[in-house]
Structure prediction request, 398 residues.
Amino acid sequence: MDGLPLPLAGLTVVAVEQAVAAPFATRQLADLGARVVKVERIDGGDFARGYDTAARGLASHFVWCNRGKESIALDLKDPRGLDVVRRLIADADVFVQNLAHGAAARLGLDAATLCAAHPRLVAVDISGYGAEGPYADKRAYDMLVQCEAGLVSVTGTPEQPVKAGIPAADIAAAMYAFSGVLAALVRRGTTGRGGPVEVSMLDALAEWMGHPLHHTIHGGTPPARTGLAHAVIAPYDAYATADGGRVLLSVQNDREWRRLAEQVVGRPDLGMDPAYATNAARVTNRKSTDALVAAALGELATDEALARLEGAGIACARLRDLRELAEHPQLAARERWREVGTPAGPLRALLPPITLPGGSEARMGDVPALGEHTEALLRAVGMTDDEIAALRQDGVAA
Prediction:
């Protein structure tokens, strides 16, 4: 029996997208087999192409978010360029856009307009703050939305709030757009109609803030910023080891504390000492609790510290940097790395997290050069050689 095909094979997605939120959403669709046509500006394309040159001269954000797509470069301010996009959409199953507020509507590319004209189409509008309300027109970059959603207020040390080190608002919006498309496609399968999907970065990240939000609005106090420590559990932090590493451990109950005290700290008496015997006591005496654990682990090399903790049944982890992540033994053992073609040559990339046993592996296609597929796509919508030449000469296509 042949393996199952990728679940989105045969579907076509057209995306007028930029930066991270929409491109990361459509990359998930491409990985699962959809054909994704990426519409870019003729003057440089998706501006994420210019964020940096870290990936062998290519932008790391762009390489991450845009594999497996076809790139067509068009001037949508020219009616002829806009007409090409409309022709592409007419044969598409999904349309995704994250243009600035109001821009898609002015072009007639908003979800409501497109779904009225194409009832089977699933059309996605991704915005910063939503289509209405006092913030609808505000610029919405990831860090700004992290601030508005309160993420920064719970991240960092007691002295200093910090933003997340990844574009959390963009990723949150992308993943809700991705799951929204899948839900709308299921609905289309039963009703024959696609329909609009709306996702805002603020809504998405506010949902991810559920735990601290409920803690605050129902409990009365926001969780404290505690760096790598835990606001209500001790010991739960990263501790330095003798060879310069750091090990994070988490004691979830008093039984674990007694094992840690006996088998790692070497002080069985601490398991019954009223100052440390309960989590409440350890939180109250966090400074001395941490000092006891730090002193014990500080005498051990990282590997030995982890072995001792594992042996005692204590949850623990090595505090890794990104180079260590790239060589993580678990990723290697599970063969999670592949190579993706790019204009700069093959680059390593991780398989997407969704694994479908018994089916085809995720399709990790090439990262396209700007306008790499323009001519083929123009021919696919019925344009002649003369028409294509005129679009190129007039700067409408590139």
